[in-house]
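# nightly structure sweep
# worker-07 picked up a monomer target from the shared queue
# config: single-sequence mode, recycle default, output format = structure tokens
# input follows
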Amino acid sequence: MISVVNSRKGVLKMNKKNILITGASSGIGAACALLAAERGYNLAIHYHSNSSGIKLIEKKCKEMGVSVQVLQGDLSDLNDINGIFSTLDNCSFRIDALINNAGIVDKTARLDEMSFERLHRMFGVNLIGPILVAKETVLRMSKRYGGAGGAIVNVSSVAARLGSGNQWVDYAASKAALDIVTKGLSDEVANEGIRVNGVRPGIIDTEIHAKGGAPNRAIDSAPLVPIKRAGTAKEVAEAILFLLSDEASYITGTNLDISGGR
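# output follows
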């Protein structure tokens, strides 16, 4: 099921750049939305189920004077993805930048305790969904198809390097595959006006740890980080917005660790 809320009537402010952010109702996605609004981007912010969270982010972004589209959908469902992009097409939302952020974890477990259903859901949301979102973005953004170009940032995790044994091997594997997508896609579209980069956050103090059954994980894991603290969602957002900016115009195919040295 897909629904859309246009928080402002009329056309978007086309003199500003437009950014699509998936998984924007909390955590890193929400921080990216707030920072992008502060910097003048018009927004299309996606969420799956956290309606109260997305309404709060929408309100805060509107207060900064930008246009906001709120999109709901399950990114493991092809029909929902197609519906989201059809909605953006119908309201003439030109995508200048994409933050491919939506992702999930599950309860901590060993690999030999994981069910097929868990693995199917994990890779559907964390890998297949972002690939399809990137595909639809490229079809609209690439100069090959008459677009104006732009930039994409995929949100991965240092788990892709560390493996997350005894916790989330499935999550780590999905993010490692996303890193490869970042590199391969960047090579495909580099001469079509699109830059593609990724970020790999480490221990970041967000709600995702509670969703995995370990609400104190960010605090408990801080001693493992060379900097000796958890990072913040805003610190990750700052790096993402830099990679989307003109200041990063010669950076593509790169995965940036934001992990305090871990």
